[in-house]
Amino acid sequence: MQQVERRGRPPITNQPLVSIVIPTYCEEQHIERCLKSIRRQKFQKGAIEVIVVDSDSPDNTKALAKQYTNKVLNVETRGVSKARNMGAQKAKGELLIFLDADTLLDSSFISKMYESFADSRVAYVSGSLVGLERSGIADNLFKLFHYGLVNKVAALTAKLGFPLFPTVCCACRKRVFRKIGGFDENLAIAEDLVFSLKMGKVGKCLVNGEAKAHTSLRRVKKHGKMKNYFIYFKNYLRVFVLNQKPWIHDFPHTVET
Questions:
Q1: Please, what is the Cα angle at 159 between 154 and 164, to 5 degrees?
Q2: So what's the pLDDT on residue 12?
Q3: How far apart are CA 190 and CA 167, in angstroms?
Q4: Is 199 within 8 Å of 177 (Cβ atoms)?
Q5: What is the pLDDT tens value at each position of the chain, 257 positions in all?
Q6: What angle do CA 84, 88, 90 make, to 5 degrees?
Q7: Which pLDDT score, from 0 to 100, does residue 230 have?
Q8: Cα 32 to chain center, whole Å?
Q9: Do the Cβ atoms of 127 and 212 come closer than 8 Å?
């Protein structure tokens, strides 16, 4: 069990209070920095458990993760929902945090997220996203626009009662996770939005603007910024408007083994 604490201070309990689930596939370039940011957390309420669920990566992702936690699971069939569900099933903490492997947490992130659940009505909380990479002026402006938009949409939809949270750095109560049945493993896209909408039906959802997470733009930039928006927009229409599955050719990894 990975425990995060101040140096020289014994763990408060052997039973983790918070379980962090990180799905991975070929993340050897990012996972170590992510896990180091968890080790730097200033959280003193209890122990933190880290669970890395890897989709049978052919690189060194698992080997690197094992240097930071003894809970590294392997799932042969790729799919981020499957990985998150498996991690949640193995988790011992009462609070689940789902974190992307290319994301770094501010040292107060877990403390700030935990504070949000002091209200017993709260079921699901999103952190506030900040761009990770330092690049040219144009990319920096796009980064501010992109994550500013994502944060505002998440906060506004939560207030309106239909939360739309990307699951980059989100937390929920484990009992509520079980109640709604976890993530839909049949969706190649929008599984996080469907999950947050389910959460909104059973409890209060909100964005904690003080819980900062620095995440990479690599997925947005992979196909080009505008093409990436178009791919997601057309597939969101299929999922939410037409009640159909996404085009699998846009997300071929979901059928690889």
A1: 30
A2: 38
A3: 10
A4: no
A5: 444 433 343 333 467 899 999 999 999 999 999 999 999 999 999 999 999 999 999 999 999 999 999 999 999 888 899 999 999 999 999 999 999 999 999 999 999 999 999 999 999 999 999 987 666 666 667 667 778 889 999 999 999 999 999 999 999 999 999 999 999 998 877 899 899 999 999 999 999 999 999 998 766 556 555 555 555 555 555 555 656 555 444 444 443 33
A6: 120
A7: 54
A8: 16
A9: yes
> Cα(196)–Cα(169) distance, rounded to whole angstroms?
12
Domains and CATH numbers, the chain: 16-255 (3.90.550.10)
The residue behind tokens 């839909």 is 184
Cβ proximity of 216 and 30 under 8 Å: yes
SS3 for 239? helix
Q: What is the rounded CA–CA span in Å between residue 132 and residue 140?
A: 10
* Cα–Cα distance for residue pair 257/255, rounded to 1 Å: 7
pTM for the model = 0.83
Residue 195 CB neighbours (<10 A): 26
| Nearest Cα to Cα of residue 153 among 231, 236, 58 | 236
| Residue 1 CA: distances (Å) to CA of 47, 52, 110, 132, 218 | 9, 11, 17, 28, 30
- Give one DSSP letter per residue of 11-25, joined into a string: PS-SSEEEEEEEEES
Give the separation between CA 37 and CA 250, rounded to whole angstroms: 32
**Cα 55 to Cα 82: distance, rounded to the nearest angstrom:** 9
> Is residue 22 a contact partner of residue 41, using CB atoms and an 8 Å limit?
no
Question: Per the structure block, which two tokens stand in for 15?
Answer: 């039973």
Write the single-letter amino acid at 247: W
Longest dimension (CA), the chain: 56
